[in-house]
Amino acid sequence: ITSKKTQQFNNPFGQFIYHHIKQEYYSDYLKQQDEFGYTFFIATVERAIVEFLYFKLKEIKQFDDDIFETSFRFQNLETVDCEKLQVIAERFKKAKLDRAVVLLIKTIEAL
């Protein structure tokens, strides 16, 4: 995710796609520093999930009850902070995203 324009890069490690999001949605990232002293930001688990769902909204007509376990194969959901997940999703002001997050929370609570 980037606040700059969407771009795609290919290198020996693979294909990397940076998707643009509005600056107002840019939050819930942890500031890190690499071994060379360069600063970068990495999404929290909850933020990464919301971004994944946000960009999948166009592809998915309807979120089925088992989509998180069968299609997306999410793992380690017991570590997800459901309240934080919902707060982040609400910032996007997308009803379909909110519904997907509510369904994910129900999946997590059923674990």
What does this structure look like?
The strands form two sheets. The chain has a two-stranded antiparallel ribbon. By secondary structure, it is an alpha+beta fold. It is globular, with a radius of gyration of 15 Å. It is built from four helices and four strands.
Mean pLDDT rating: 90
Helix/strand/pairing category: alpha+beta
Helix content: 25-40%
Q: What is the string of helix and strand elements? A: EEEEHHHH
Major sheet: size, sense and barrel closure?
2 strands, antiparallel
- What is the overall silhouette? globular
Number of helices: 4
Low-confidence stretches: none
Strand order of the largest sheet: 1-2
| Amino- and carboxy-terminal Cα gap | 29 Å
User: Could you tell me the radius of gyration in angstroms?
Assistant: 15 Å
Q: How many strand units?
A: 4
User: Beta-strand percentage?
Assistant: 15-25%
List the helices and strands and how they pair.
Blueprint: E1 7-11, E2 14-18, E3 29-33, E4 39-43, H1 45-56, H2 67-70, H3 82-91, H4 95-109
Antiparallel strand pairs: 1-2, 3-4
Helix pairs in contact: 1-3, 3-4
Descriptive keywords:
two-stranded antiparallel sheet; 4 helices; 111 residues; 18% strand; alpha+beta; single chain
